Amino acid sequence: EAKNRGKSAFQRFAPEMKEVSQERLQTESLLRRALEMQEFELRFQPILRLGDSRIMGAEALLRWNNPTLGMVPPDRFIPLAEETGLIITIGRWVIREACRTVSRWQKQTGDPVIMAVNVSPRQFRDPHFVETVSAALQETGLEGQYLELEITERLILDNNLETDRVLRDLDEMGVRLSVDDFGTGYSALGYLKNYPFDTLKIDKSFVGDLNRDSDDTALVSAIINMAHSLGLKVVAEGVEYQDQLEFLSTERCDYAQGFLFTHPLNEREFLLWCSDHMDG
Ligand code: C2E
Ligand code: MG
Ligand code: MG
Ligand code: MG
């Protein structure tokens, strides 16, 4: 009985395994060619200052538009890009493209907008990472203070001397540094004091539960106060409702980002959104 059940379970399972790995192989080979085929695009989501609702900047969010797979969201290919190391060349493209874009906006509008760019652990640990960033700034003529690199808590907590050196080198270049997805790591808060971070981004899972969960309400308020006492600015991500925004304003959160304002936009849409927002 048990043996038969085991066997049939195996037979049901095995073909799926094969499918999964074949799908993965296909995705991987498509991903290898994606850069040269120019299949990557950036979307931009505005980050607004809560005090006066002015546009502080934008977060660049990567999209992979492949003829076979369609529009692939980052959560579906960034882990694979990390595993294969492809994230290093893809990430280099993202940084350069983001710098180029924001430098163009600044020239067009005269506004000192900031571009936030996500950096994944493997990319950050690439020995040429600092060089990649400084080359992108140099090529595009962008000042470091207009580029903000978003690094996840997990990376910082893997703590080693190299992380420390890279963060300091970036800080010396004037680049801004932010902790993304704050609260989802192990929250060994000590690192905030020891590293040159400028901004802390409260993970959207806390913001999402603000209206329902009073523990999250207390947590968000504590995070904001703690960040401020360490001299960090706070961005709340994933803001979808007006009452979340009101709570965040009352708690003196500095910036907000989320579908309440707009989902991520392509460059043309973003510039239109900004000019509407300024007028309105
Ligand atoms: P993230 O950096 O935390 O980015 C915020 C994510 O939340 C984005 O998802 C954004 O579209 C989404 N979002 C924005 N507002 C709202 C909201 O009001 N509600 C909800 N539910 N979601 C909202 P996206 O674009 O799918 O990106 C997912 C993740 O992929 C990012 O999370 C980031 O970790 C990673 N990622 C995106 N672009 C890049 C990139 O260029 N390089 C690297 N290494 N990672 C990237
Ligand atoms: Mg981010
Ligand atoms: Mg700094
Ligand atoms: Mg985040």
UniProtKB/TrEMBL annotation:
Name of the protein described by the UniProt record: cyclic-guanylate-specific phosphodiesterase
Domain EAL span(s) in chain numbering: 24-278
Residue window of the full protein shown: 521 to 800 of 800
Protein's organism: Vreelandella halophila
